[in-house]
Design a protein that fits this description.
alpha+beta; single chain; about 55% helix; 11 helices; four-stranded antiparallel β-sheet; elongated; about 400 residues
């Protein structure tokens, strides 16, 4: 406790020199905080834009294959996949939608969906008697949630053309990002029934007959969704290694992840250079301070201050200087971030802050600064601990 009071009193006695140390540290830390804030703001905004687009994490099969429901489910158990739904042939996934009162009608693309579909979140997936319309389809049909519509499907067997229709309830309107064209989301069971009808197979569920024999259900592909954008490329690589050709937006994701890695590397290089410079500067200053006051320190030894107390004085001073410098740097960062965000945030997706830090990042930077200061101050403390009591008499 005595060494603590003496160390702080000495700093206050030479407050001009102490202020120089504090400003020097702040001049190193403040730019690092701004750089880290810019990295965080830019990369997090780009990540947020990727995550806001529900298609970014999709892995879609290519071409028409023949997959059983069990094969699709097995793919869905792959590590990193959080959602999967089978897909019918694209040519079979269209139907005519019309208002229940016989009003507006349009030809819509039908997308399969299932419970937990990220494309529809926060909406629930429709059952087999429901349908979720895209915003454009809902607008052209003049329908809202709870409305009724007719879904009509046609087929041609030989020279005979025929069709069937179903009455469905609009279970919801999909988010704008889910599907931009005239389309709708229906259960995979309903979509499979429409495909069977078009292929001439009977559909007992709806009482539709057909001349062809109903065989085992096979799907032409799947739409899977990864839990994280970082998982998309790895999942696609595993599936392609198993012979499943897929398409993803991994290139766009990799661009953002590469930017994150590059900015992190740049920040670490600058931080290491700045931290080394600060450690050398503070260590040299404190060691010089000890050398300049060896006479006074030796008198403290003569008065009974032990080696631990002598070593503790430069350490306390180093920590105090670093704490004050960190506070000054945080103030400078706050002002700089305010100016940067007011001037440049409009260019970011969603208009978020271009320069921002969370408390964990601030604590990490300050903690590392304190560790560096402790290392530098320990060297000065070892020098102070070696001061002998007799040096005071010789300097006297």
């Amino acid at each position: 406790m005595l060494s603590l009071r003496l160390a702080l009193a000495d700093l206050w006695h030479e407050k001009g020199l102490s202020a120089c140390f504090v400003i020097a540290l702040a001049a190193i830390l403040a730019p690092l905080l701004v750089l880290l804030g810019l990295k965080t703001g830019v990369v997090d905004s780009l990540r947020a834009e990727l995550l806001a687009d529900p298609h970014m994490r999709e892995i879609n099969s290519l071409g028409n294959r023949s997959l059983s429901a069990e094969a699709v489910a097995e793919i869905g158990r792959q590590e990193g996949i959080t959602f999967i739904v089978a897909r019918t042939r694209q040519l079979a996934a269209t139907a005519t939608l019309a208002r229940g009162d016989g009003g507006n009608a349009l030809t819509a693309e039908l997308m399969p969906t299932a419970p937990g579909d990220p494309l529809l979140a926060p909406l629930a997936a429709p059952g087999e008697d429901g349908i979720v319309l895209s915003p454009l389809a809902a607008r052209k049909l003049g329908l809202a949630t709870g409305g009724r519509l007719r879904l009509a499907v046609q087929r041609k067997l030989g020279d005979q053309a025929e069709g069937k229709s179903l009455s469905l309830t609009v279970a919801g309107i999909a988010p704008a990002a889910a599907f931009a064209r005239e389309g709708a989301f229906v259960s995979i069971g309903l979509l499979a029934a429409l495909e069977d009808y078009r292929d001439g197979r009977p559909v007992p569920r709806y009482g539709w007959d057909g001349p062809n024999v109903a065989g085992p259900r096979a799907f032409s592909g799947f739409r899977a969704v990864a839990g994280r954008i970082e998982d998309v490329a790895a999942i696609a690589a595993r599936l392609e290694a198993r012979g499943q050709a897929v398409t993803t937006r991994a290139d766009e994701i990799e661009t953002v992840l590469r930017l994150d890695r590059n900015l992190t590397a740049i920040f670490l290089i600058i931080a290491v250079i700045g931290g080394a410079g600060f450690a050398l500067s503070l260590g040299a200053s404190l060691i010089g301070h000890v050398a300049r006051k060896r006479g006074e320190l030796s008198l403290l030894r003569m008065m009974g201050l032990g080696s631990a107390g002598m070593a503790g004085m430069p350490i306390v001073q180093g920590i105090a200087i670093t704490g004050a410098g960190a506070l000054l740097a945080l103030g400078a960062y706050g002002l700089a971030a305010l100016v940067i965000n007011r001037q440049f945030s409009d260019g970011l997706p969603g208009g978020g802050d271009i320069c921002r830090l969370d408390m964990a990042q601030v604590a990490a930077v300050v903690g590392i600064a304190l560790v560096v200061a402790l290392f530098a101050a320990t060297l000065a403390g070892l020098s102070a601990a070696r001061v002998e009591p007799g040096e005071g008499l010789r300097h006297g």
